[in-house]
Please model this.
Amino acid sequence: MPNKVDVVICGEVITLKSNEEEAHLQRIARYIDRKLAELTETNAHASIDERIRTLLIAVNVADDYFKAADNLARTNAQNEVYLHELGLVQEEYALLKEKFHELQHELILTKSERDSLEREFNKPHTKDGTNVRPLPRKINLK
Model:
Protein backbone atom coordinates (compact mmCIF):
# COMPACT_ATOMS: atom_id res chain seq x y z
CA MET A 1 0.00 0.00 0.00
CA PRO A 2 1.46 3.37 -0.98
CA ASN A 3 2.68 5.74 1.72
CA LYS A 4 1.43 9.32 1.83
CA VAL A 5 4.28 11.65 2.68
CA ASP A 6 4.18 15.45 3.00
CA VAL A 7 7.34 17.12 1.69
CA VAL A 8 8.31 20.76 1.38
CA ILE A 9 9.70 22.01 -1.91
CA CYS A 10 10.25 25.72 -2.52
CA GLY A 11 8.19 26.55 0.55
CA GLU A 12 5.16 24.55 -0.59
CA VAL A 13 3.86 21.41 1.10
CA ILE A 14 3.30 18.64 -1.41
CA THR A 15 1.80 15.23 -0.62
CA LEU A 16 3.50 12.35 -2.37
CA LYS A 17 2.12 8.82 -2.66
CA SER A 18 4.77 6.15 -3.06
CA ASN A 19 5.87 2.69 -1.99
CA GLU A 20 9.21 4.22 -1.02
CA GLU A 21 10.18 4.97 2.57
CA GLU A 22 9.43 8.42 3.93
CA ALA A 23 13.12 9.15 4.56
CA HIS A 24 13.88 8.45 0.89
CA LEU A 25 11.11 10.77 -0.30
CA GLN A 26 12.23 13.52 2.10
CA ARG A 27 15.77 13.19 0.76
CA ILE A 28 14.52 13.60 -2.81
CA ALA A 29 12.44 16.63 -1.82
CA ARG A 30 15.47 18.27 -0.14
CA TYR A 31 17.53 17.59 -3.27
CA ILE A 32 14.95 19.20 -5.58
CA ASP A 33 14.55 22.10 -3.14
CA ARG A 34 18.34 22.67 -3.24
CA LYS A 35 18.29 22.60 -7.05
CA LEU A 36 15.52 25.21 -7.05
CA ALA A 37 17.49 27.36 -4.61
CA GLU A 38 20.63 27.09 -6.80
CA LEU A 39 18.63 28.12 -9.87
CA THR A 40 17.11 31.05 -8.00
CA GLU A 41 20.52 32.19 -6.69
CA THR A 42 22.22 32.07 -10.09
CA ASN A 43 19.32 33.80 -11.84
CA ALA A 44 18.12 36.10 -9.04
CA HIS A 45 17.87 39.12 -11.30
CA ALA A 46 16.03 37.34 -14.10
CA SER A 47 12.35 36.60 -14.22
CA ILE A 48 12.13 32.98 -15.32
CA ASP A 49 8.96 31.47 -16.66
CA GLU A 50 7.70 28.55 -14.53
CA ARG A 51 7.94 26.17 -17.49
CA ILE A 52 11.56 27.20 -18.23
CA ARG A 53 12.44 26.91 -14.54
CA THR A 54 11.03 23.37 -14.46
CA LEU A 55 13.03 22.47 -17.59
CA LEU A 56 16.22 23.92 -16.14
CA ILE A 57 15.76 21.91 -12.95
CA ALA A 58 15.12 18.78 -15.02
CA VAL A 59 18.35 19.45 -16.96
CA ASN A 60 20.28 19.91 -13.69
CA VAL A 61 18.85 16.70 -12.23
CA ALA A 62 19.59 14.80 -15.46
CA ASP A 63 23.14 16.18 -15.42
CA ASP A 64 23.65 14.93 -11.85
CA TYR A 65 22.14 11.56 -12.78
CA PHE A 66 24.39 11.04 -15.82
CA LYS A 67 27.50 12.11 -13.90
CA ALA A 68 26.62 9.62 -11.16
CA ALA A 69 25.92 6.88 -13.73
CA ASP A 70 29.26 7.55 -15.47
CA ASN A 71 31.05 7.51 -12.13
CA LEU A 72 29.37 4.21 -11.26
CA ALA A 73 30.40 2.72 -14.62
CA ARG A 74 34.03 3.81 -14.05
CA THR A 75 33.94 2.39 -10.54
CA ASN A 76 32.52 -0.92 -11.81
CA ALA A 77 35.21 -1.11 -14.51
CA GLN A 78 37.92 -0.43 -11.92
CA ASN A 79 36.41 -3.09 -9.65
CA GLU A 80 36.65 -5.59 -12.53
CA VAL A 81 40.34 -4.76 -12.89
CA TYR A 82 40.84 -5.18 -9.15
CA LEU A 83 38.99 -8.51 -9.15
CA HIS A 84 41.15 -9.77 -12.02
CA GLU A 85 44.31 -8.70 -10.18
CA LEU A 86 43.03 -10.34 -7.02
CA GLY A 87 42.53 -13.59 -8.93
CA LEU A 88 46.12 -13.42 -10.18
CA VAL A 89 47.42 -12.76 -6.67
CA GLN A 90 45.39 -15.68 -5.30
CA GLU A 91 46.83 -17.99 -7.98
CA GLU A 92 50.35 -16.81 -7.17
CA TYR A 93 49.67 -17.31 -3.45
CA ALA A 94 48.53 -20.90 -4.08
CA LEU A 95 51.70 -21.63 -6.08
CA LEU A 96 53.93 -20.08 -3.43
CA LYS A 97 52.14 -22.00 -0.70
CA GLU A 98 52.69 -25.26 -2.62
CA LYS A 99 56.39 -24.42 -3.12
CA PHE A 100 56.70 -23.58 0.58
CA HIS A 101 55.33 -27.01 1.53
CA GLU A 102 57.73 -28.69 -0.92
CA LEU A 103 60.65 -26.83 0.62
CA GLN A 104 59.50 -27.75 4.14
CA HIS A 105 59.44 -31.41 3.08
CA GLU A 106 62.94 -31.12 1.57
CA LEU A 107 64.16 -29.52 4.79
CA ILE A 108 62.79 -32.39 6.86
CA LEU A 109 64.51 -34.92 4.56
CA THR A 110 67.78 -32.97 4.69
CA LYS A 111 67.67 -32.78 8.49
CA SER A 112 66.96 -36.49 8.66
CA GLU A 113 69.91 -37.24 6.38
CA ARG A 114 72.13 -34.92 8.43
CA ASP A 115 71.11 -36.66 11.66
CA SER A 116 71.84 -40.04 10.09
CA LEU A 117 75.28 -38.85 8.97
CA GLU A 118 76.01 -37.44 12.44
CA ARG A 119 75.11 -40.76 14.06
CA GLU A 120 77.34 -42.59 11.56
CA PHE A 121 80.14 -40.10 12.13
CA ASN A 122 79.96 -40.35 15.93
CA LYS A 123 79.95 -44.15 16.34
CA PRO A 124 83.24 -46.05 16.81
CA HIS A 125 84.62 -47.65 13.65
CA THR A 126 87.43 -49.92 14.87
CA LYS A 127 87.42 -53.24 16.70
CA ASP A 128 89.35 -51.82 19.61
CA GLY A 129 86.76 -49.12 20.26
CA THR A 130 88.79 -46.13 19.17
CA ASN A 131 86.80 -43.53 17.38
CA VAL A 132 88.16 -43.38 13.90
CA ARG A 133 85.91 -41.27 11.79
CA PRO A 134 85.51 -41.78 8.09
CA LEU A 135 85.62 -38.84 5.72
CA PRO A 136 82.13 -37.49 5.11
CA ARG A 137 80.62 -38.48 1.82
CA LYS A 138 79.41 -35.85 -0.59
CA ILE A 139 75.84 -34.72 0.11
CA ASN A 140 73.70 -33.76 -2.86
CA LEU A 141 71.56 -30.76 -1.89
CA LYS A 142 69.36 -29.26 -4.53
Notes: The first helix runs from residue 22 to 42. The chain has a mean pLDDT of 87. The chain has two helices and two strands.
